[in-house]
């Protein structure tokens, strides 16, 4: 059960209502999610060890055996009778051979399917499994539950009813939890349990009384209600009640009604399924629907109040053919920020776009073909959706030879405009549409010499445009490129270590061709002023092929010690021999030639990982990026400290810089206690991006966690040409909804409730991965 609240309210009536809700929990550990399937592993009660059944069903033994005149067998002293799936042990018993019935068992113990049933006296029908026991204790191993009872009646293979019983998973219930009840029923076929007229004690104090309480009697997944979530937020009470439906061994559906006081009532759903062609990847369809969002109607009175979002993600493989679908869409760009969800996985917090793509790929020997429809929906109301590729066709052929490889690539793309109804800025920046033809042919040769390898790669790139609004088609552009690489590999081994030494020298040149009249389809307008010289493909795509000529030297050293330690060292020196006229043209200024130096050093062993990486521009006398950190992994403590710096970050701020430090600690203490804490701080704005603190306790009996977090977005602005088109106050208001603090309290009664803690709020994640 989870409470997320800045203030605390507790009444017995309120707790009773919530407890009944989460008691419907049916665990979803399954073929689709094996991580939850063994959550009670290692929690067996030492008083009831797991036994190996060494006795056949017809076996019987005792210290004294008498056969009565009616044919019954009287057994006394150390009685042992074999069962199909277990055994019976008692001080005395009477066995009726004609009825295959054991009666008058005294001071006995039945071991059946790893479960124990201790009793003062009782009877058992071996054929049907019908059982009647008095004054005893039952141990149900699968969920580590201990039941004390006055009487037990039922069938070992079907259903059991414990009367005047108590239930717990704790070795000492006074230090954990215990339920005392008039009746506890367990249905072995449906794997469900039901408790009637119960009192719940925690730490030996009665905190709750209920007339009825269902619970799961298995760790296998069952249809039923999952753990609800109740939150107190700035927008009022938020109640989330998911229902889990097992459709088959390879599919399930979760439907969750949701009520948010200031916004209204909505519905969320998650459908997961596996396919025969791709059993390793979980496919899913996520849906969120909020009709008549009251807060949204206040801000957009003319707009439809219905708010929704969905995502379909599927991958299939058939021999040499594969298909992929990743299609997401939302009613508006802000719905996923306004209504973050712990069930659906439609987008992360800093995703700028929802992908809308469908592709099919085929590989036949050295030939491959793919066809793709690709588009994006903006999750930022100040950024347009860009272009749609409908379709894109790729052909590729490679011919391998003993010393030379030939390759040919062809790409056809048809671009159209993807409109955004909620786009607040000027949408004229995306106006040209048309077709693009792109081909590349080349060859690569590899020669092995005594001390080094030589590879030469040469190619010609052709591209041509056919624009819809221009009657005269553009001329084809031909761009030659050559890359020469000299590399070598040396190794050294000893009884204590093994080392690799890899020097490399690269010369690369791409000729200049004037491309100023070509449109820009791949390069989105959001990246103006953010040219990363080390990753030009990301910013330029196929529309701007920059002219380059540089010389690069790289030196790698890898060393592995027998004690498991590893050392990696790399240094790179890159000298640009000519400045790029293409980049100068796009920036409307000359940036000149640059010389860059980069290094990457890391060391790792069983308890320590340390790393340092940086890239330095000699021309600008500044770092392009840098990162350093240390991770300490002790048996009871994990500590991480890191510093990260990066320039050329799209949509960050006018300086395009990101500089932050992170610290986190996780400490496991004695007797099941744990402490976690961490902070991420923006060193430019001197503000915390995220801080959290948590304290918890867990054993085989119960678990609780208190977790406090505070999230803030570093204040970033849009690019200058866009920032003039809207009120900056609106932008501040928009990102303020992400700046929320929460206090979460979670508790679990082991064996009775679920502990399905993997469903976190997925939207508040991946802090910097998408910048």
Automatic annotation (TrEMBL):
<keyword id="KW-0472">Membrane</keyword>
<comment type="function">
    <text>Together with LptE, is involved in the assembly of lipopolysaccharide (LPS) at the surface of the outer membrane.</text>
</comment>
<dbReference type="GO" id="GO:0009279">
    <property type="term" value="C:cell outer membrane"/>
</dbReference>
<keyword id="KW-0998">Cell outer membrane</keyword>
<protein>
    <recommendedName>
        <fullName>LPS-assembly protein LptD</fullName>
    </recommendedName>
</protein>
<comment type="similarity">
    <text>Belongs to the LptD family.</text>
</comment>
<comment type="subunit">
    <text>Component of the lipopolysaccharide transport and assembly complex. Interacts with LptE and LptA.</text>
</comment>
<dbReference type="GO" id="GO:1990351">
    <property type="term" value="C:transporter complex"/>
</dbReference>
<dbReference type="GO" id="GO:0043165">
    <property type="term" value="P:Gram-negative-bacterium-type cell outer membrane assembly"/>
</dbReference>
<dbReference type="InterPro" id="IPR050218">
    <property type="entry name" value="LptD"/>
</dbReference>
<keyword id="KW-0732">Signal</keyword>
<dbReference type="InterPro" id="IPR020889">
    <property type="entry name" value="LipoPS_assembly_LptD"/>
</dbReference>
<dbReference type="GO" id="GO:0015920">
    <property type="term" value="P:lipopolysaccharide transport"/>
</dbReference>
């Amino acid at each position: 059960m989870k409470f997320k609240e800045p203030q605390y309210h507790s009444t017995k009536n309120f707790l009773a209502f919530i407890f009944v809700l989460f008691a419907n929990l049916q665990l979803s550990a399954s073929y689709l999610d094996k991580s939850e399937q063994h959550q009670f592993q290692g929690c067996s009660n030492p008083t009831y060890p797991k036994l190996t059944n060494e006795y056949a069903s017809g076996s019987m033994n005792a210290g004294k055996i008498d056969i009565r005149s009616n044919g019954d067998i009287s057994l006394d002293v150390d009685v042992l009778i074999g069962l199909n799936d277990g055994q019976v042990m008692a001080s005395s018993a009477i066995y009726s051979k004609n009825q295959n019935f054991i009666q008058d068992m005294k001071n006995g113990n039945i071991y059946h399917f790893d479960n124990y049933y201790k009793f003062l006296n009782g009877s058992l029908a071996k054929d049907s499994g019908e059982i009647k026991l008095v004054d005893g204790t039952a141990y149900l191993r699968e969920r580590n539950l201990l039941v004390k009872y006055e009487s037990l009646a039922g069938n070992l293979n079907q259903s059991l009813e414990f009367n005047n019983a108590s239930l717990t998973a704790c070795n000492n219930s006074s230090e954990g939890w215990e339920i005392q009840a008039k009746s506890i029923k367990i249905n072995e076929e449906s794997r469900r349990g039901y408790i009637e007229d119960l009192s719940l004690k925690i730490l030996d104090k009665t905190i709750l009384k209920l007339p009825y309480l269902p619970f799961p009697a298995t760790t296998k997944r069952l249809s039923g209600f999952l753990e609800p979530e109740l939150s107190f937020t700035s927008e009022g009470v938020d109640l989330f009640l998911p229902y889990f439906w097992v459709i088959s061994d390879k599919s399930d559906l979760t439907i969750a009604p949701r009520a948010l006081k200031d916004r209204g009532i909505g519905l969320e759903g998650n459908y997961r399924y596996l396919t025969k062609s791709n059993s390793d990847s979980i496919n899913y369809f996520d849906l969120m629907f909020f009709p008549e969002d009251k807060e949204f109607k206040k801000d957009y009175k003319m707009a439809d109040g219905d708010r929704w979002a969905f995502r379909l993600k599927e991958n299939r493989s058939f021999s040499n053919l594969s298909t992929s679908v990743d299609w997401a869409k939302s009613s508006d760009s802000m719905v996923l920020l306004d209504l973050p969800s712990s069930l659906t996985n439609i987008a992360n917090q800093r995703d700028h776009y929802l992908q809308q793509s469908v592709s099919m790929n085929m590989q036949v020997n050295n030939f491959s073909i793919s066809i793709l429809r690709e588009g994006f929906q903006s999750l930022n109301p100040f950024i347009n959706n860009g272009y749609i590729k409908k379709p894109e066709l790729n052909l590729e052929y490679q011919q391998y030879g003993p010393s030379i490889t030939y390759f040919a690539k062809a790409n056809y793309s048809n671009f159209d405009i993807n409109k955004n109804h909620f786009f607040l800025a000027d949408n004229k920046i995306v106006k040209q549409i048309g077709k693009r033809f792109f081909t590349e042919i080349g060859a690569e040769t590899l020669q092995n010499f005594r001390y080094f390898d030589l590879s030469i790669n040469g190619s010609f790139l052709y591209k041509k445009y056919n624009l819809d609004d221009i009657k005269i088609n553009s001329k084809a552009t031909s761009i030659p490129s050559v890359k020469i690489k000299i590399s070598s590999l040396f190794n050294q081994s000893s009884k204590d270590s093994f080392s690799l030494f890899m020097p490399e020298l690269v010369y690369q040149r791409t000729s200049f061709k004037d491309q100023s009249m070509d449109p820009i389809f791949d390069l989105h307008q959001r990246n103006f002023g953010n040219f990363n010289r080390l990753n030009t493909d990301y910013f330029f795509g196929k529309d701007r092929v920059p002219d380059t000529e540089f010389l690069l030297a790289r030196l790698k050293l890898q060393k592995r010690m027998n004690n498991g330690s590893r050392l990696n060292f790399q240094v790179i020196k890159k000298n640009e021999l000519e400045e790029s006229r293409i980049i100068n043209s796009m920036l409307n200024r000359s940036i000149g030639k640059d010389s860059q130096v980069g290094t990457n050093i890391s060391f790792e062993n069983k308890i320590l990982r340390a790393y340092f990486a940086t890239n330095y521009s000699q021309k600008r006398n500044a770092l392009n990026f840098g990162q350093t950190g240390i991770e300490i992994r002790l048996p009871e403590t994990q500590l991480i400290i890191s510093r990260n710096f990066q320039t050329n970050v799209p949509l960050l701020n006018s300086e395009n810089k990101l500089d932050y430090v992170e610290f986190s600690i996780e400490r496991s203490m004695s007797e099941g206690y744990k402490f976690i804490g961490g902070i991420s701080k923006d060193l430019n704005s001197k503000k915390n991006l995220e801080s959290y603190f948590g304290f918890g306790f867990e054993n085989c009996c119960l678990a609780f966690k208190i977790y406090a977090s505070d999230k803030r977005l570093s204040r970033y602005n849009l690019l200058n040409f866009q920032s003039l088109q809207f009120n900056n106050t609106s932008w501040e208001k928009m990102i303020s909804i992400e700046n929320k603090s929460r206090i979460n309290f979670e508790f679990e009664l082991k064996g009775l409730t679920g502990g399905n803690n993997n469903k976190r709020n997925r939207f508040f994640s991946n802090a910097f991965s998408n910048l």
